[in-house]
Design a protein that fits this description.
By secondary structure, the protein is α/β, with parallel strands linked by helices. The protein is built from 6 helices and 9 strands.
Length: 228
């Protein structure tokens, strides 16, 4: 474990860690725009990432050249309080064409995933992806027990997949491959429970049981931003 390039900030608040992550990602975005003319990133919704997104939104970045998408999205209206799109748009000064929503808009999720995957595929790889992690070690909307996560063909899955977690709303999610192949990857977690769950997952190396393992595949390990 010590060989992995973690950023574990001890005795730090979520505000401090969120600021560090935002500063690092701002530099990644500047570099991507300088090198390739544009940047394409995926960021999470939810409670823990909000401070990071607010902090990132304060940076003077070339937002007209940055395209953002959510790592996942519940099948809800974009103005729903649970919508990741809603939160991301509130936090970041996006250009009018700078956001790719993960919306089904009343269609079957499989149809929406196919159409959105076709839109996203030409833009890959992501220049950066930031994900959170649930206490059950799910990332994006890839949940424990999903047999697709253990399939040898999972790299051939389309970029966007439908997800039907038990007892929760159906949703759309980035597939394993875009997460694992992003040029820069970060995991944002808070609390000792999640840190312990992460360490146990990386020891087990079983992505079906511990989807967070997917983020540590395919080259250099991600940076982990942890708030106590």
């Amino acid at each position: 474990m010590s060989a992995m390039p973690f950023t574990l900030v001890g005795e730090a608040t979520l505000t401090q860690v969120s600021g560090l992550l935002a500063a690092d990602l701002a530099e990644v975005l500047r570099h991507a725009v300088s090198e390739r003319g544009r940047a394409f990133i995926a960021v999470p919704g939810g409670t823990t990432p909000r401070e990071f997104l607010v902090s990132l939104g304060r940076y003077d970045l070339p937002w007209s050249r940055i395209t953002v998408m959510p790592t996942d999205e519940r099948d809800v209206a974009p103005d729903d309080m649970r919508s990741n799109e809603r939160m991301i748009r509130e936090c970041l000064p996006l250009a009018s064409d700078g956001f790719i929503p993960l919306r089904a808009d009343g269609r079957p999720l499989e149809d929406a995933a196919e159409e959105l995957g076709n839109r996203v595929a030409p833009l890959l790889p992501l220049d950066a992806v930031v994900v959170g992690m649930g206490a059950d070690t799910h990332i994006a909307s890839l949940f424990p027990g999903d047999p697709r996560l253990g399939s040898p063909e999972r790299g051939a899955l389309p970029p966007i997949v439908p997800s039907y977690p038990a007892g929760l709303e159906p949703r759309l999610s980035l597939a394993p491959s875009p997460l694992a192949t992003a040029r820069w990857r970060a995991l944002l977690i808070a609390g000792e429970q999640k840190r312990s769950a992460l360490m146990a997952s990386l020891e087990a190396k079983e992505p079906v049981a511990h989807p967070v393992c997917l983020l540590f595949e395919g080259g250099a390990s991600p940076r982990v931003y942890w708030a106590e």
